[in-house]
Design brief:
Layout: E1 3-9, H1 19-26, E2 35-40, E3 43-48, E4 63-65, E5 68-76, H2 79-86, H3 95-106, E6 116-124, E7 129-134, E8 143-146, E9 150-154, H4 157-164, H5 172-180, E10 195-196, E11 201-206, E12 209-214, H6 229-243, E13 250-254, H7 259-274, E14 280-286, H8 296-303, E15 308-314, H9 324-331, H10 340-352, E16 355-359, H11 364-368, H12 373-380, H13 384-398, H14 402-413, H15 415-427, H16 448-454, H17 456-466, H18 474-482, H19 485-501, E17 504-506, H20 512-520, E18 527-528, E19 531-532, H21 534-539, H22 546-549, H23 558-578, H24 582-585, H25 590-603, H26 609-626, H27 628-634
Parallel strand pairs: 13-14, 13-16, 14-15, 16-17
Antiparallel strand pairs: 1-3, 1-9, 2-3, 4-5, 5-6, 6-7, 7-11, 8-9, 8-10, 11-12, 18-19
Helix pairs in contact: 1-4, 2-3, 5-17, 6-20, 10-19, 12-18, 13-14, 14-15, 23-25, 23-26, 25-26
């Protein structure tokens, strides 16, 4: 969770820039263990160090070797393999030094040999180029801006926005996407002149311009069943957890009692016990005053295996807007996650315990997959009895009418259904749409000039077409889950909160080897007899308590979020949503927002998640408008220079 920043002078004037000093100051919270800057001619690189790795794996930066200079936020998974390829002593090299050695050997092809979480920049004095890269899934953040005179990069968008200042005009398309709940692309940010380096991409700043390149991408291939899929899952998952254990101080893990966090905690505890390391410290948000929404019984089941020191974080009086304005300034933009304040509380609790590395189960659903696309595959193959068994098993878990679900699949995929659709199409006019494959209607929360200027409805439909759909095959659906733009966005939001606490989050599910293995599995290893994520449940037999391994339900923060909104913020929401606002009505359909708010108040903790999100986004936008970040950006919306 270190900080990287830098500047390249594109004007060739060699003039010093005050931008580096401002970036260094804006990112100072990311470097409690040291800071450094390197300057020479056109290039300036900086680094703030949060030393979360053992001594030999951390080193002061920027690193200078011959005509190469590197600044990196990095944690490598394949140190031994990489050291062997490079013919260097693994124990004598930090992770950053290994990256620099890889660049020396393979130049811009070095990303083909790296595994782990990284965001780095290498200045090549001989070539006069800057090479930047971000890891496969975007765990480490990287932002940049290009003008006619300079290229700037930073680990946080808020830092760049402060430095760019009057040039950081609002990107209205990004704003409309946020209001509608979409994430249409991997590059844009709230600010027109600031871009994100997308996951699995690299960027080169050369004398003749700036170029982007994707160096890796997930691919869908024919499913293959390994000889021992459960043993292989267990091996890969254990390997991934073990890669993320080395820490310079105490090691912690988030533990909710769910399948993901419990799996990480139990495997990590076993690995630490075998190496005679201090026990794992777990951090759990508990809601003891509302036992119907509390996961303490599952948390305690995960703790029964021993070798864990638990810390419970009381969270009954959770207020989704507690500290919101401060977090808004830290993030530099409004954000989707109304449960973020609970994460923030846990991160700070970890820091109070002397923990600077926190394992997080985020992404387990996406990586392992519930296997819902198997239902489509069974329907296409006319395996109706098997389909009925799977749907019936799912209904036992999540409720719903199994007969109706199977009937809908039958209408869509059977020969009888195909004939019926052909007849129906003949009876309809040629320009009318059928009931099959009709795209979801776009939300109407974006409104006024903003909606028309950005064509937000079309953008939302394009985004929705790329998101997982229940009518996709399992491979298609799993791939869509894994490549959603929301994944990197979530990492970026969590990164800022963790950095403010001086904590680095590590995500064992987002290991490239584990991801590729899970994606390649056939659908019956993901969903079987109504049990989603089947390979994981089987692979962790003997590791997880049975009550968790075969747990059907999944904890929902929704009731706590709604309870917090209504209990602590009703007067605020009344002011933000119910009052007439000419400025807000130019962006948001306040009638729609008020309808959602009214339904949330009436339904209480049973409120629809879509309504809750609309209320949250409306309030977040209103509060952001009050923030000075917005005022400074708004004042220059028409004055921003063009991006080179």
């Amino acid at each position: 969770m270190s900080g990287v920043f830098g500047r390249i002078d594109l004007s060739r004037s060699g003039d010093a820039s005050a931008a580096m000093a401002r970036l260094q100051s804006a990112l100072s919270h990311r470097g409690p263990d040291g800071t450094g800057r390197w300057t020479s001619g056109r290039a300036e690189l900086g680094h703030h160090l949060l030393a979360t790795l053992p001594g030999h794996r951390s080193a002061p930066q920027p690193l200078v070797k011959s005509e190469l200079v590197l600044t990196a936020d990095v944690r490598l998974d394949n140190r031994a393999e990489l050291s062997q390829r490079l013919d260097v002593d693994e124990l004598a090299m930090s992770d950053a030094e290994l990256i620099l050695a890889a660049y020396q050997t393979w130049s811009e092809g070095c990303t083909d040999y790296l595994l782990g979480d990284f965001a780095f920049a290498v200045w090549d004095e001989r070539k006069g180029t800057l090479f930047c890269a971000r890891d496969h899934f975007g765990v480490k953040p990287f932002y940049y801006t290009v003008t006619e005179t300079e290229f700037l990069f930073s680990s946080e968008v808020a830092a760049l926005a402060r430095v760019v200042g009057a040039a950081s005009a609002v990107d209205e398309a990004w704003l409309a996407d946020f209001i509608t709940g979409a994430a249409c692309d991997q590059e844009s940010t709230l600010y027109k002149t600031i871009k994100r380096l997308a996951p699995a991409h690299c960027l080169t700043v050369a004398p003749d311009g700036v170029s982007l390149r994707r160096y890796w991408g997930l691919k869908l291939a024919a499913p293959e069943t390994p000889a021992a899929p459960y043993a292989e899952f267990r091996r890969l998952f254990t390997q991934s957890v073990a890669c993320r254990l080395p820490a310079s101080k105490k090691l912690g893990a988030m533990l909710s009692g769910g399948l993901d966090s419990s799996s990480i905690a139990r495997v990590a505890a076993e690995c630490l016990s075998q190496s005679h390391s201090p026990p794992l410290i777990t951090f759990s948000a508990v809601f003891d005053e509302t036992p119907q929404w509390n996961e303490r019984p599952f948390i305690e089941a995960a703790l029964d295996g021993g070798a864990i020191t638990p810390v419970f974080v009381p969270s009954d009086h959770h207020d989704p807007f507690d500290g919101f304005e401060q977090v808004l300034g830290e993030q530099g933009c409004p954000f989707f996650a109304p449960s973020l304040m609970i994460n923030r509380r846990i991160h700070h609790a970890a820091a109070m315990q002397g923990v600077n590395v926190l394992l997080d189960g985020h992404g387990g659903d996406e990586v392992v997959s519930f296997g819902y696309g198997r239902l489509v595959e069974l329907a296409i193959a006319s395996k109706w009895l098997r389909l009925w068994m799977e749907v019936n098993g799912l209904a036992a878990t999540y409720g719903g009418n199994a007969t109706l679900v199977v009937w809908n699949y039958f209408k869509r995929y059977s020969r009888v259904g195909d004939v019926a659709r052909r007849i129906k199409r003949r009876l309809k006019s040629s320009n009318s749409s059928s009931d099959v494959g009709t795209p979801r209607p776009a939300p109407v929360l974006a409104a006024g000039r903003l909606a028309s200027a950005t064509d937000s409805a079309t953008r939302w439909r394009r985004w929705a077409s790329l998101e997982p759909d229940m009518m996709m095959s399992e491979g298609e659906r799993h791939l869509a889950l894994m490549t959603s733009n929301l994944n990197a966005y979530a990492f970026e939001v969590l990164d800022v909160v963790a950095a403010r606490a001086g904590v680095e989050c590590r995500y064992p599910f987002w290991d490239k080897r584990l991801v590729e293995f899970c994606l390649a599995l056939p659908s019956d290893e993901k969903l079987r007899r109504g049990w989603g994520r089947y390979v994981m449940r089987m692979g962790l037999a003997g590791v997880l308590p049975e009550a968790i391994r075969w747990r059907r339900d999944k904890f929902d923060f929704g009731p706590h979020i709604v309870n917090g909104l209504i209990t602590y913020n009703q007067s605020l929401l009344d002011l933000l949503i119910l009052e007439d606002s000419e400025e807000m009505s130019g962006w948001i359909n306040l009638e729609v927002a008020r309808g959602a708010y009214d339904r949330v108040r009436k339904a209480g903790v049973k409120a629809d998640g879509g309504d809750v999100q609309m209320v949250w986004r409306t309030a977040a936008i209103a509060l952001w408008r009050r923030n000075e970040t917005f005022r400074s950006a708004e004042s220059s919306m028409q004055a921003a220079p063009s991006v080179a």
